[in-house]
Specification:
Helices cover 36% and strands 24% of the residues. The protein is of the alpha/beta class. Helix 7 links the parallel strand 12 and strand 13. Helix 1 packs parallel to helix 9 and helix 4 runs antiparallel to helix 5.
């Protein structure tokens, strides 16, 4: 090991950034590598997808965040492999970077359970690009419905299906309900947005399975007040441009829905599988890497795996959830452990996760929370949710902007970021439908003229 150890951190999410900041005074050089040049506040991606916030309000440039940390540098790059024996990582452009300590916080990506073809028709919410794509689909659906006269076709465009009853699915369904019944209520002339059909579905017996049954029930009631239909115990069989086919028991049903959004499971990114293979590490069925109690890999005590990529057990032997707090606490622990090894050669006690609770917002002044053992719902839970999310947004400027946007939205029901940007397959479908509609109209007119003559 050199006189000045080199710590490489893969991933600028909550875990990686927490580790880098915790190493601020460490006697080491820090290199943070990410495929993007910004830290993304993923819990608020659904607000970008529903027009409440703009992408820049939930993202912070990594170089700016770490600009005053003199022992840290940021590199833009895609890490594709790790060589634990050689203490090196390989980037997609062929660059090789050596390390003394490695923290892998590469996060997770959406899992379509072997049906990647569904991604084209049902985007998930893991990136800014996906969030703006979802925003496009939601807002465009109302625009299409405004111009289509056929009631059956119009109904399919005003049907929104969210697959996955976890916090993301619940928050997204509630936000779409507010858009339809409050934000857009007076914006259209040919349609009534409040008549939009919003369906939240999950294969589990109820939504929000990690929460208590009482809180899940309250969340279901709050969603229903926003016009959201909650369907549980259903499995998705197919998704295409026409909608989604679901099975409940032995019965299969096709739902005509031009807007399907995926809020289902997650899996590890390719780097996770590459690391597991090169290190000979054991994984669970979703590909997450099983780590030691100190978050290191077996046989490689200088490699820490944290966050969504790791299988770390609590004191009861149950895997820790893939939530922000686990990643942040894991990053801080890995940093302290590295400092301990550098300064004294010693080791820290095993990692212990402190569960601060779970939160999910449903709509305006409505949320459910299990915070520090206290179970809340309604406005008190929403206040806690808002405070915690503001607290963990990285940049102060973003905190202020988000607070102002939320305050304005609560008073006026308006969503200032309702922008339809980019071009998706929806545009082509829309144009084809309008062309067909015009063709049918012309044909009917011609027949009418022929009848008169």
């Amino acid at each position: 090991m050199s006189a000045r150890p080199h710590v490489v951190i893969i991933g600028g999410g909550f875990g990686g950034l927490s580790a880098a900041q915790a190493l601020k005074k460490a006697p080491a050089d820090i290199t943070l590598i990410d495929r993007r040049n910004f830290h993304l506040f993923q819990p608020l991606l659904y607000q970008v997808a529903t027009g409440s916030l703009s992408p820049g309000e939930i993202a912070a440039p990594l170089r700016g965040v770490l600009s005053k940390q003199k022992n840290a540098r940021v590199l833009l790059g895609d890490v594709v492999d790790v060589n634990p024996e050689a203490h090196s990582i390989l980037l997609a452009d062929g660059a090789i970077i050596q390390y003394d300590f490695l923290i892998v916080a590469a996060g997770a990506q959406s899992s379509y359970y072997g049906h990647e073809e569904w991604r084209q028709w049902a985007p998930s919410l893991k990136s800014i690009e996906e969030a703006t794509d979802v925003r496009h689909k939601i807002l465009y659906a109302f625009e299409v419905a405004e111009r289509i006269s056929d009631p059956v076709a119009r109904s399919s465009w005003l049907t929104f299906v969210i697959v996955g009853g976890g916090p993301t699915g619940v928050e997204l369904a509630g936000a779409i309900g507010e858009i339809a019944r409050q934000t857009l209520r007076n914006d259209f002339r040919s349609i009534r947005p409040e008549e939009a059909r919003i369906i939240l579905m999950d294969g589990a017996p109820r939504i929000l399975m990690p929460y208590t049954e009482k809180l899940a029930h309250k969340a279901t009631e709050a969603l229903q007040r926003l016009g959201v239909q909650v369907r549980t115990g259903v499995m998705v069989k197919a998704i295409d441009r026409e909608g989604v086919t679901i099975a409940q028991g032995s019965t299969e049903v096709h739902l005509d829905a031009r807007t399907v959004i995926w809020a289902g499971g997650v899996t590890v990114p390719p780097l996770g599988r590459a690391l597991a293979k090169s290190a000979g590490a054991e994984t669970d069925k979703s590909g997450r890497i099983k780590v030691e109690p100190d978050l290191t890999l077996p046989r490689f005590g200088n490699i820490f795996v944290i966050g969504d990529l790791a299988v770390s057990l609590d004191r009861f032997g149950k895997p820790l959830p893939g939530v922000v707090q686990v990643a942040m606490q894991g990053g801080a622990y890995a940093a302290k452990s590295i400092v301990k090894k550098i300064e004294t050669g010693g080791v820290l006690p095993p990692f212990k996760y402190f569960d601060k609770g779970s939160l999910a917002v449903i709509g305006r002044a409505s949320a459910v929370a299990n915070a520090f053992g206290v179970k809340l719902s309604g406005l008190p839970a929403w206040i806690i949710w808002a405070f915690i999310h503001l607290m963990y947004i990285v940049q102060f400027q973003s905190k202020v902007l988000v607070f102002i946007q939320w305050a304005f939205q609560e008073i006026t029901f308006s969503r200032s970021a309702r922008l339809i940007t980019g071009t998706t397959v929806t545009d082509f479908i829309f144009n084809n439908e309008l062309a067909t509609q015009r063709s049918e109209g012309a044909k009917q007119k011609a027949q009418a003229v022929g009848t008169v003559h």
